[in-house]
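Extended Data, panel c. Modelled sequence:
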Amino acid sequence: MAILVNEFLGILEGLAPAALAEDWDNTGLQLGARGASVSSILVTLNVSEAVISEAIAGRYDLILTHHPLIFQPIRSASDDSETGKLVRLASAAGINVVAAHTNLDSARGGLADTMAELIGLMQVKPLEGAAAGWSKLVTFVPASDLDRVRETLFGAGAGVIGDYRHCSFMVEGTGTFLPTEGAHPAVGRLGKDERVVETRLEMVFPTGNAGAVVAALLSSHSYEEPAYDIYPLATCRHDAGPGRIGELSHEEELSGFAGRLAEQFGMEQVRYIGEPGRLLR
Protein backbone atom coordinates (compact mmCIF):
# COMPACT_ATOMS: atom_id res chain seq x y z
CA MET A 1 0.00 0.00 0.00
CA ALA A 2 1.37 3.41 -0.97
CA ILE A 3 0.46 6.87 0.27
CA LEU A 4 1.58 10.36 -0.69
CA VAL A 5 4.26 12.21 1.26
CA ASN A 6 1.60 14.80 2.10
CA GLU A 7 -0.63 12.09 3.59
CA PHE A 8 2.27 10.83 5.69
CA LEU A 9 2.89 14.38 6.92
CA GLY A 10 -0.79 14.52 7.96
CA ILE A 11 -0.38 11.30 9.98
CA LEU A 12 2.77 12.67 11.60
CA GLU A 13 0.97 15.93 12.42
CA GLY A 14 -1.60 13.94 14.38
CA LEU A 15 1.16 12.22 16.39
CA ALA A 16 3.63 15.09 16.82
CA PRO A 17 2.07 18.43 15.81
CA ALA A 18 4.50 20.89 14.24
CA ALA A 19 3.27 23.57 16.66
CA LEU A 20 5.04 21.69 19.49
CA ALA A 21 8.47 22.23 17.92
CA GLU A 22 10.76 24.81 19.48
CA ASP A 23 11.21 28.08 17.55
CA TRP A 24 14.86 27.26 16.78
CA ASP A 25 14.08 23.81 15.42
CA ASN A 26 13.62 22.72 11.81
CA THR A 27 11.08 19.93 11.39
CA GLY A 28 8.78 18.56 8.73
CA LEU A 29 9.53 17.88 5.07
CA GLN A 30 13.21 18.66 4.49
CA LEU A 31 13.78 17.06 1.12
CA GLY A 32 11.40 15.70 -1.50
CA ALA A 33 7.94 16.33 -2.92
CA ARG A 34 4.58 16.30 -1.16
CA GLY A 35 3.03 14.56 -4.13
CA ALA A 36 5.59 11.74 -4.19
CA SER A 37 4.45 8.17 -3.50
CA VAL A 38 5.66 6.39 -0.35
CA SER A 39 5.36 2.67 0.35
CA SER A 40 8.32 2.10 2.69
CA ILE A 41 9.90 4.26 5.41
CA LEU A 42 13.28 4.03 7.15
CA VAL A 43 13.43 5.48 10.69
CA THR A 44 16.71 6.83 12.04
CA LEU A 45 18.21 9.05 14.73
CA ASN A 46 20.49 10.89 12.28
CA VAL A 47 20.82 10.95 8.50
CA SER A 48 24.28 9.75 7.49
CA GLU A 49 25.87 8.38 4.33
CA ALA A 50 25.42 4.87 5.73
CA VAL A 51 21.71 5.49 6.40
CA ILE A 52 21.17 6.78 2.85
CA SER A 53 23.02 3.75 1.46
CA GLU A 54 20.75 1.49 3.52
CA ALA A 55 17.69 3.35 2.20
CA ILE A 56 18.88 2.92 -1.39
CA ALA A 57 19.66 -0.78 -0.91
CA GLY A 58 16.32 -1.40 0.80
CA ARG A 59 14.36 0.70 -1.71
CA TYR A 60 12.94 2.96 0.97
CA ASP A 61 11.01 5.96 -0.36
CA LEU A 62 11.31 8.12 2.75
CA ILE A 63 13.65 8.59 5.70
CA LEU A 64 12.06 9.74 8.95
CA THR A 65 14.83 11.23 11.08
CA HIS A 66 14.77 12.54 14.64
CA HIS A 67 17.64 15.00 14.23
CA PRO A 68 17.05 17.24 11.19
CA LEU A 69 19.23 16.69 8.13
CA ILE A 70 19.03 20.42 7.41
CA PHE A 71 19.33 22.33 10.66
CA GLN A 72 21.37 25.42 9.84
CA PRO A 73 20.85 27.25 6.52
CA ILE A 74 23.07 25.87 3.76
CA ARG A 75 24.53 27.97 0.95
CA SER A 76 24.76 25.12 -1.55
CA ALA A 77 24.01 21.43 -2.00
CA SER A 78 27.57 20.46 -2.87
CA ASP A 79 30.23 18.15 -1.50
CA ASP A 80 31.84 21.18 0.17
CA SER A 81 29.78 20.43 3.30
CA GLU A 82 28.62 17.19 4.89
CA THR A 83 24.99 18.35 4.83
CA GLY A 84 25.23 19.36 1.17
CA LYS A 85 26.74 15.99 0.30
CA LEU A 86 23.93 14.10 2.08
CA VAL A 87 21.27 16.27 0.42
CA ARG A 88 22.75 15.47 -2.98
CA LEU A 89 22.91 11.73 -2.28
CA ALA A 90 19.31 11.49 -1.03
CA SER A 91 17.97 13.74 -3.79
CA ALA A 92 19.76 11.80 -6.54
CA ALA A 93 18.18 8.59 -5.20
CA GLY A 94 14.71 10.18 -5.06
CA ILE A 95 14.50 9.69 -1.30
CA ASN A 96 12.27 12.04 0.71
CA VAL A 97 13.47 13.17 4.13
CA VAL A 98 11.18 14.20 7.01
CA ALA A 99 12.30 15.32 10.48
CA ALA A 100 10.36 14.99 13.75
CA HIS A 101 12.55 16.49 16.47
CA THR A 102 11.43 18.65 19.42
CA ASN A 103 7.81 18.22 18.36
CA LEU A 104 8.24 14.46 18.90
CA ASP A 105 10.06 15.10 22.20
CA SER A 106 7.18 17.21 23.51
CA ALA A 107 4.19 15.37 22.04
CA ARG A 108 1.69 13.43 24.09
CA GLY A 109 2.98 9.87 23.99
CA GLY A 110 6.26 11.09 22.47
CA LEU A 111 9.83 10.61 23.59
CA ALA A 112 9.56 12.46 26.93
CA ASP A 113 6.46 10.44 27.91
CA THR A 114 8.14 7.22 26.77
CA MET A 115 11.23 7.91 28.90
CA ALA A 116 9.09 8.85 31.91
CA GLU A 117 7.21 5.56 31.58
CA LEU A 118 10.43 3.54 31.31
CA ILE A 119 11.82 5.29 34.39
CA GLY A 120 8.62 4.44 36.27
CA LEU A 121 7.37 7.98 36.95
CA MET A 122 3.78 8.49 38.09
CA GLN A 123 1.54 11.57 37.97
CA VAL A 124 3.53 12.76 34.98
CA LYS A 125 3.06 16.21 33.50
CA PRO A 126 5.13 18.54 31.27
CA LEU A 127 7.57 20.96 32.85
CA GLU A 128 5.50 23.63 31.11
CA GLY A 129 2.46 23.39 28.87
CA ALA A 130 3.03 23.88 25.15
CA ALA A 131 1.20 26.49 23.13
CA ALA A 132 -1.77 24.74 21.58
CA GLY A 133 -1.21 26.42 18.20
CA TRP A 134 -4.94 26.99 17.81
CA SER A 135 -7.09 29.65 16.23
CA LYS A 136 -10.84 30.06 16.47
CA LEU A 137 -13.21 30.43 13.52
CA VAL A 138 -16.41 32.40 14.09
CA THR A 139 -18.96 32.52 11.29
CA PHE A 140 -22.68 33.17 10.80
CA VAL A 141 -24.83 30.56 9.10
CA PRO A 142 -28.52 30.34 8.11
CA ALA A 143 -30.38 27.31 9.43
CA SER A 144 -30.55 25.69 5.97
CA ASP A 145 -26.72 25.62 5.77
CA LEU A 146 -25.84 24.77 9.37
CA ASP A 147 -25.42 20.98 9.21
CA ARG A 148 -23.58 21.09 5.89
CA VAL A 149 -21.17 23.82 7.04
CA ARG A 150 -20.43 22.07 10.34
CA GLU A 151 -19.72 18.71 8.69
CA THR A 152 -17.49 20.28 6.04
CA LEU A 153 -15.48 22.20 8.64
CA PHE A 154 -15.08 19.07 10.75
CA GLY A 155 -13.81 17.28 7.63
CA ALA A 156 -11.17 20.03 7.23
CA GLY A 157 -9.80 19.35 10.72
CA ALA A 158 -11.71 21.96 12.75
CA GLY A 159 -13.50 21.22 16.02
CA VAL A 160 -10.94 18.89 17.62
CA ILE A 161 -10.12 19.37 21.32
CA GLY A 162 -7.96 16.60 22.78
CA ASP A 163 -9.74 13.27 22.37
CA TYR A 164 -13.01 14.97 21.40
CA ARG A 165 -14.20 15.58 17.84
CA HIS A 166 -16.99 17.71 16.37
CA CYS A 167 -16.61 20.37 19.09
CA SER A 168 -18.45 23.60 18.33
CA PHE A 169 -20.55 26.32 19.95
CA MET A 170 -23.75 27.74 18.47
CA VAL A 171 -26.08 30.58 19.42
CA GLU A 172 -28.95 32.04 17.41
CA GLY A 173 -29.16 35.71 16.43
CA THR A 174 -30.18 38.10 13.67
CA GLY A 175 -27.97 39.09 10.77
CA THR A 176 -28.56 42.19 8.63
CA PHE A 177 -27.34 43.11 5.16
CA LEU A 178 -28.21 45.25 2.14
CA PRO A 179 -27.44 43.69 -1.27
CA THR A 180 -26.12 46.40 -3.64
CA GLU A 181 -25.69 46.50 -7.41
CA GLY A 182 -23.54 43.61 -8.63
CA ALA A 183 -24.46 41.32 -5.74
CA HIS A 184 -26.16 37.95 -6.23
CA PRO A 185 -27.72 37.28 -2.82
CA ALA A 186 -28.75 33.75 -1.84
CA VAL A 187 -31.34 35.38 0.43
CA GLY A 188 -33.19 38.68 -0.10
CA ARG A 189 -33.38 41.20 -2.95
CA LEU A 190 -31.16 43.93 -4.36
CA GLY A 191 -31.59 47.32 -2.70
CA LYS A 192 -33.65 45.97 0.21
CA ASP A 193 -32.45 45.81 3.83
CA GLU A 194 -32.68 42.23 5.02
CA ARG A 195 -32.91 40.61 8.43
CA VAL A 196 -32.13 36.90 8.61
CA VAL A 197 -32.14 34.49 11.53
CA GLU A 198 -28.62 33.04 11.64
CA THR A 199 -26.53 30.85 13.93
CA ARG A 200 -23.22 32.12 15.25
CA LEU A 201 -20.95 29.08 14.84
CA GLU A 202 -17.58 28.83 16.61
CA MET A 203 -14.91 26.13 16.54
CA VAL A 204 -11.16 25.86 17.06
CA PHE A 205 -8.67 24.54 14.52
CA PRO A 206 -4.87 24.16 14.18
CA THR A 207 -3.53 27.54 13.06
CA GLY A 208 -1.56 25.96 10.23
CA ASN A 209 -4.84 24.63 8.82
CA ALA A 210 -6.36 28.09 8.26
CA GLY A 211 -6.33 27.88 4.47
CA ALA A 212 -8.13 24.52 4.37
CA VAL A 213 -10.66 25.59 7.01
CA VAL A 214 -11.56 28.83 5.20
CA ALA A 215 -11.82 26.96 1.89
CA ALA A 216 -14.17 24.45 3.53
CA LEU A 217 -16.34 27.27 4.88
CA LEU A 218 -16.59 29.05 1.53
CA SER A 219 -17.39 25.84 -0.35
CA SER A 220 -20.22 24.81 1.98
CA HIS A 221 -21.86 28.19 2.74
CA SER A 222 -24.66 29.34 0.42
CA TYR A 223 -23.93 33.07 0.89
CA GLU A 224 -21.99 34.86 -1.82
CA GLU A 225 -19.89 36.65 0.83
CA PRO A 226 -20.12 34.71 4.12
CA ALA A 227 -18.87 36.70 7.10
CA TYR A 228 -16.23 35.08 9.28
CA ASP A 229 -13.57 36.00 11.83
CA ILE A 230 -10.38 34.15 12.82
CA TYR A 231 -8.91 34.77 16.28
CA PRO A 232 -5.45 33.57 17.38
CA LEU A 233 -5.66 31.78 20.75
CA ALA A 234 -3.14 31.80 23.60
CA THR A 235 -4.39 28.42 24.85
CA CYS A 236 -1.80 26.08 26.42
CA ARG A 237 -1.89 22.32 26.33
CA HIS A 238 -1.58 20.44 29.63
CA ASP A 239 -0.73 17.06 28.06
CA ALA A 240 2.25 18.13 25.96
CA GLY A 241 5.30 20.34 26.21
CA PRO A 242 9.05 20.17 26.87
CA GLY A 243 10.29 17.81 29.57
CA ARG A 244 8.37 15.80 32.16
CA ILE A 245 8.10 15.85 35.93
CA GLY A 246 6.65 13.06 38.08
CA GLU A 247 7.03 10.91 41.16
CA LEU A 248 8.76 7.58 41.74
CA SER A 249 6.74 4.75 43.27
CA HIS A 250 9.23 4.59 46.17
CA GLU A 251 12.31 6.40 47.41
CA GLU A 252 15.66 5.55 45.78
CA GLU A 253 19.21 6.61 46.53
CA LEU A 254 20.68 8.90 43.86
CA SER A 255 23.50 6.44 43.01
CA GLY A 256 21.05 3.56 42.67
CA PHE A 257 18.71 5.62 40.53
CA ALA A 258 21.56 6.66 38.23
CA GLY A 259 22.66 3.04 37.92
CA ARG A 260 19.12 1.96 37.08
CA LEU A 261 18.96 4.61 34.34
CA ALA A 262 22.25 3.43 32.88
CA GLU A 263 20.95 -0.14 32.72
CA GLN A 264 17.51 0.93 31.46
CA PHE A 265 18.92 2.94 28.55
CA GLY A 266 21.93 0.77 27.75
CA MET A 267 24.60 3.29 28.82
CA GLU A 268 28.06 2.05 29.71
CA GLN A 269 28.49 4.89 32.20
CA VAL A 270 26.43 7.68 33.70
CA ARG A 271 27.37 10.96 35.39
CA TYR A 272 25.42 12.67 38.15
CA ILE A 273 25.81 15.57 40.57
CA GLY A 274 24.89 15.21 44.25
CA GLU A 275 25.41 13.03 47.30
CA PRO A 276 25.24 9.34 46.26
CA GLY A 277 23.08 8.41 49.24
CA ARG A 278 20.55 11.25 48.84
CA LEU A 279 17.00 9.90 48.66
CA LEU A 280 14.89 10.75 45.62
CA ARG A 281 11.12 10.60 45.23
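The radius of gyration is 25 Å. This feature is highlighted in the accompanying rendering.
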